[in-house]
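Let us practice reading a record.
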Amino acid sequence: MSKFVISTFRGRLTNNVTKTTFKTNLIRPLLLSHNFSSTSNNYAVQNISVYGSGLMGAGIVQVAAQYGFKVTMVDLNQEFIDRGKEIINASLKRVAKKQHKDDKAAQNALIEYTWSNIETDIDSVRGAEKADLIVEAIVENLQTKQNLFQQLDKVAKPNAIFASNTSSLPISEIAKATQRQDKFAGLHFFNPVPQMKLVEIIKTSQTSKETYKILNDVIMKMEKAPVICKDTPGFIVNRLLVPYLMESIRLVERGEASMKDVDTAMKLGAGMPMGPFELCDFVGLDTLKSIVDGWRKDGKIDANLVATSKILDDLVESGHLGRKSGKGFHKYV
């Protein structure tokens, strides 16, 4: 959770993420130097295909291309692709300006180098044919993800590795749609991908050591920090963060403190860049509710941690979803 890291909620965050305090407080952008990275011929992964061109997918494409991988961004139609290219272009300009503040030529060189490594395609089959690694960053729906991987399993190279960027769905369940479960894992990037250093590598009981090593090498080449986790609900970050957010809501429901005071307390007392209610609004209340409802239905987490919240349910039902709707726990102009 894709931004203090809850922002990992599958690209639900808006482009305003780049303007928030937590971005600069938690991690500095990892930018390319003048000596642009190149992919060695004997490197296990040279070609990456990313399915999905939203905030998460576009961010993964950008970072991979910046660090020398040849990347194909795949989506359902050209309109989605064009929107993804706009996201990448805007982000690249920010990155280049920060990396080379007073050197316009260096800024342009970084942007041109990154784009030289990016292709796009609206043909899902063709997009997978040359990939050494396929990363899925589409809608958070188990059946939709399974359908995609089942199709790609038939056309991708036998040794191609599959990875899902899901923040809440079981990797093992997604992998069941394929015949390469030993080459399947989770790669959970955090949004905004170009700025956030952490990547969770999620291993199922069938993920091979070789697959993990290759994925770890890929993440290290992108100059990000990998952490390993078993295929458990929420992995590491969301597993800890969602219950924290829900308990914050329940604390207010019980009348023990106000939302304003809870936000202030966690920022000034715990050093959080955002208070929990600010963070809920930033992520999207519908997204938070969807995750909690899914975990409760799954039954693998203590029921008390994922109990329903009337305040949350009522806000979502009323269409007050947080920043994206103009109102959630707080109001936004």
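A brief commentary: DSSP finds 13 helices and eight strands in the chain.
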